[in-house]
Please model this.
Amino acid sequence: MTRAGTMAGLANRWGFHAVLLALGALMLANLNWPLVQSFEFVFIWEYRIALLKGFGITLLLTVEAGVVGVVFGTLFAIGSQSAYSPLRWLVGAYVEVFRNTPLLVQLLWIHFALPLVTGINTTALVSGIIGIGLQAAAYYTEIMRAGIQAVPRGQVEAAHALGLPAWTRWTRVVLPPAIRTVIPALLNQNISFFKATAIVGLGLLVGDFFTAALRVSNDTFHFLEPLTFAAAVYLVLGWQAGRWTLRLERRLSRGER
Amino acid sequence: MSETANGTNGGDPIIRCRGVVKRFDDFTALDAVSTEVRTGEVVCIVGPSGGGKSTFLRMINGLEGIDGGEIVVDGIHLPGSKKDIQRVRREVGMVFQSFNLFMHMSVRENLILAPMTARKIGRAAADERAERLLERVGIGDQIDKYPSQLSGGQQQRVAIARALAMEPKVMLFDEPTSALDPEMIKEVLDVMVELAESGMTMLCVTHEMSFAREAAGRVLFMADGQILVDAPPARFFSEAEDERQASFLSKIL
Ligand SMILES: Nc1ncnc2c1ncn2[C@@H]1O[C@H](COP(=O)(O)OP(=O)(O)OP(=O)(O)O)[C@@H](O)[C@H]1O
Ligand SMILES: [Mg+2]
Model:
């Protein structure tokens, strides 16, 4: 870098800092200080049992999205590689439908419209479990398909040439390296579903963490504290999980054989 | 067997190809190929790039479908059912240019997987077989390593041992030394020569003319999807009976 370039870079950086500082000062000046000082997190403590219960449901939905998503996503991804074209088409249609419609619409459709078709009524939580599971399977199908396609073609051919049964070819030759490559993508996707549980909560009132936080607001007429607290919990957990995933990703790529 | 160990009058035909056709869309890659390979024969396939050598080899174990004619391998007719293809694959080993070892498995796991799952032999017998075959290809001490820890020549020898672990009746080789550094070619060719001398039926696509001269009973020259020449190596390399063969020989010799 030339001397002039360094100077320009420095000036740029100082300019940037100045703008940030000005913006920060503006925000502080306009903060409602009495309100901030009156933060009463005691409400959250009072409702800790309800919030914890809600968090349990959030965790349940998150883990369920991951497990159901990976299991069905893997099966559907295998189907997408089939030589039988109707099966490929069916998997493709499934993926497109569930990835290109909003989760909220899917949830409400499953809870309110599906019973009209099937005659089977489901509770809100069951509808939520089905809905997020179906969408997770669609997203995980795409991830698993990418993983499967990343397995070197030659290894799959060798499996064929050795006469390996299809089951062995998939479970021993194709899926282990495929899953290994997509583990970070799977985890990142699951972090997205962790956040999406709030939509399930609000849409179907399944009593998840976010619904519980909203109930605190409704009961106490305090919106700032419960919503800020909820946001902080999602932020900290999502951020930590993201960092952990990144570390895992680095380790996996370093240990690549 | 009569004449020579790898001579043309080996045993009964184990591979019979009649009018075999392969098309990719409207391009004809194989145009009515007919030939026979007898038990114990070593046949080298040579010819210019794009001539259809790999395609032909891959059709013999069902890696490519057949669009016309038929291939009979050890009495099993192709094209055939999925089951027939599986049966053929169990009898026909294949070695690829790029080794294609299972990179997430140890050498041992590479060698025991197919015998245990496709032949349903027990773990102990599979282990014993793996150890014996690795000794045979000269890398018995590498059994617990991963492929990425081995040189190219060692990997290809593992790939040969992996195919042999199925105890196939025929071995197919598709340019097994083309991806190797020069100093590693010999160690692989030595294994192939030993295999040929042991009486294995072999079909080898190769650019190693020394191997063709030394080990082959017949040389097939393929170009434009046809077998243009079928001759013993001595004659194949001394007198060209086809124009394209002559130009091919002038380039490689
Ligand atoms: N999957 C495929 N789709 C379309 N065309 C193909 C396919 N496989 C092979 N071909 C074509 O068929 C012809 C024969 O290919 P093949 O690989 O059998 O040649 P080859 O003799 O093995 O050549 P090389 O010495 O380069 O390996 C080539 O023209 C090739 O482009
Ligand atoms: Mg080829």
User: Anything to note?
Assistant: Chain B has a mean pLDDT of 93. The first strand of chain B starts at residue 13 and ends at 24. Chain B has nine helices and ten strands.
